[in-house]
Amino acid sequence: MNSFFIGIIIAAVTMCADFNKEECTCNDIYLSGVVNVVEYNEDFKVRVVDGFEDLTVTNSPYTAPSSCGNWYFNNNMNPNFTVRFVEYGEDFTIRIVE
Questions:
Q1: What pLDDT, in 10s, does the model give residues 15-60?
Q2: CA torsion, points 12, 25, 96, 45, in degrees to nearest 10?
Q3: How many domains does the chain contain in total?
Q4: What residues make up the domain containing 24?
Q5: Which pTM value belongs to this model?
């Protein structure tokens, strides 16, 4: 029983402190636009899930998407923010849709 509560506490601590689904922001960064995938020094750690996601992400064909969750993955452009994909310890979870 104690391990269950410890798991809940760890999950709560690892989530982004300022994730706001209604405003589509995390740490006051709007979650849309050009995204670079990095291995370190990321703005956010994200975990890809199949359901119960914090944010639904669409891989945008446009270089300047403006809608919430529309991400244009391109490591050759100046990003709006950077992400690192992780298996645990994420700031928030995403589900990528086409």
A1: 566 899 999 999 999 999 999 999 999 999 999 999 999 999 999 9
A2: -50
A3: 1
A4: 2-97
A5: 0.80
